[in-house]
Write a structure and sequence with these properties.
The chain has 197 residues and is mainly beta. It has a single domain (32-196), classed as Sandwich (Jelly Rolls), CATH 2.60.120.560. The chain contains one helix and 13 strands; from the N terminus they run αβββββββββββββ. The strands form two sheets. Strands 1, 3, 4, 6, 9, 10, 11 and 13 form an eight-stranded antiparallel β-sheet that branches. The protein has a five-stranded antiparallel β-sheet with strand order 2-5-12-7-8, with no helix packed on it. A hairpin with a 2-residue loop joins strand 3 and strand 4. The longest helix is centred in the N-terminal third of the chain and has 18 residues, at 2-19. The N and C termini lie far apart (48 Å).
């Protein structure tokens, strides 16, 4: 009888442990798709860029410039984005935007997508005015994947699996919104996902 009770308690404990959330299943630790290429839900357009959903991507190809600004704010986060830009495009992913009505390098971190930037040290793959890139990867004319990690005052960036910013430190902005930029050319985003860390 004691053996049956012990076995029953052991099975109950194992079953409860199997149902308990693991460290990887805690809320906020899972990947969350915040842009799926089929909708602008959760994003607010700022400026006059002509953001639209087309062929499984959110894109802009006209206007004097503008942003899609996320509804939610993020601090320590990993971001993965799939994007396509024309050779002449000026775009970027702004993170920790502290003022969503006035987005710029003084109110956020700009992870640049700008192959023809006059000063290429802050071109594609760089964090403008924070971390230079050399050599600069070219993103124009194809689908690309950008990975951004922001943890405390440390930042890393990779473009198509190549590290462009490695553990640089800056403490100007602790948290804020994400903004996708349209500045020139053709800019498309088909997937953006985040995981809080």
């Amino acid at each position: 009888m004691e053996r049956r009770v012990a076995l029953g308690l052991g099975l109950s404990a194992a079953f409860a442990a199997a149902l308990a959330p693991s460290a990887f299943a805690r809320p906020g630790r899972r990947w969350k798709i915040i842009l799926d290429g089929h909708s602008l839900d959760g994003w607010t357009p700022i400026g006059d860029a002509n953001w639209a959903v087309k062929d499984g991507a959110v894109q802009a190809d006209a206007g004097k410039g503008g942003f899609l600004v996320s509804r939610d704010t993020y601090g320590d986060v990993r971001i993965e984005a799939e994007f396509w830009v024309s050779d002449d495009a000026n775009s970027g992913i702004f993170i920790r935007c502290t003022n969503p009505a006035r987005i710029g390098v003084d109110t956020a971190y700009e992870v640049n997508i700008f192959d023809r930037r006059p000063d290429p040290t802050y071109g594609t793959g760089a964090i403008v005015n924070v971390a230079k890139v050399s050599p600069m990867p070219k993103a124009g004319g194809r689908w690309n994947r950008m990975e951004i990690t922001a943890r405390g005052d440390r930042f890393s960036v990779a473009v198509n699996g190549v590290r462009t910013v490695d553990n640089v430190a800056d403490a100007a902005h602790a948290h804020g919104r994400i903004a996708l930029q349209y500045g020139a050319g053709v800019v498309k985003f088909r997937k953006v996902r985040v995981r809080e860390i």
